[in-house]
Amino acid sequence: MHIGLIGGIGVAATVVYYQRLTAAVDHMGGKLDLTISHGDILPLIRNNLADDRQPQAEIFARQIDRLRDAGCDCIALTSLGAHYCVSEMNELSSLPVISGVAPLDEYFVSQGVKRVGLLGTRSVMTTRLFGQLKQTEAVALDDEIDTLGQSYQDIAVAGTCTDEQRVQLLDAGRRMIVNHNAQAIVLAGTDLNLAFDNQSPEYTVIDALDVHVSVLADLATGRRNLDEVAMSK
């Protein structure tokens, strides 16, 4: 199956999607058919902060049409925060949209995790992953959502993470474990690998990007078909 990715939102996350998806498909012994459409993170940030869903959905729809014309069978967003407008995007999309959010609940259950702490964009933390967790309870540091959300935004735009930002995010995860009884911290922002890769926090970390990549790899290699995976709603 030919996979389409809407990338550039941000660039670092797109690179990691590409690296991990190619590695997963190679490990399965398959061949990856992939096309990436480069997007612009700055309009996405503006529209997300203003909760302007239709304009962003229209931007994505134009990219999806280009991916369709390139032969893609389905598409995925390389940003969990960008899922804020998926309902509007689905109305316009010319291809099936493979959700990066919907598979998480099932994955948490499979790991025996009932309560998770979230790090990501403001909207991801405020809405607790857009209200799509049905079997898992999610917590966030509500008094610090603006501060943490701004740090995440800065990391995504820059494509790099400073030592100060890394310490801030690692500590936020620790406090959700200690003070809010989270069993695991979910990297619910696809650029958070810049802060957490090669780190050894004394708590369980689940990278939502890896869960999404696993679904895409199954599709790419034919292990699952579109009827068997969760679509964006």
Automatic annotation (TrEMBL):
Record GO terms (molecular function): amino-acid racemase activity
Signal peptide: none
Gene3D superfamilies assigned to the protein according to its UniProt record, in alphabetical order: 3.40.50.1860
Pfam family, one: Asp_Glu_race
Keywords: Isomerase
InterPro entries (alphabetical): Asp/Glu/hydantoin_racemase, Asp/Glu_race
Protein known as: Aspartate/glutamate racemase family protein
Organism: Parasedimentitalea marina
High-level lineage: Bacteria, Pseudomonadati, Pseudomonadota, Alphaproteobacteria, Rhodobacterales
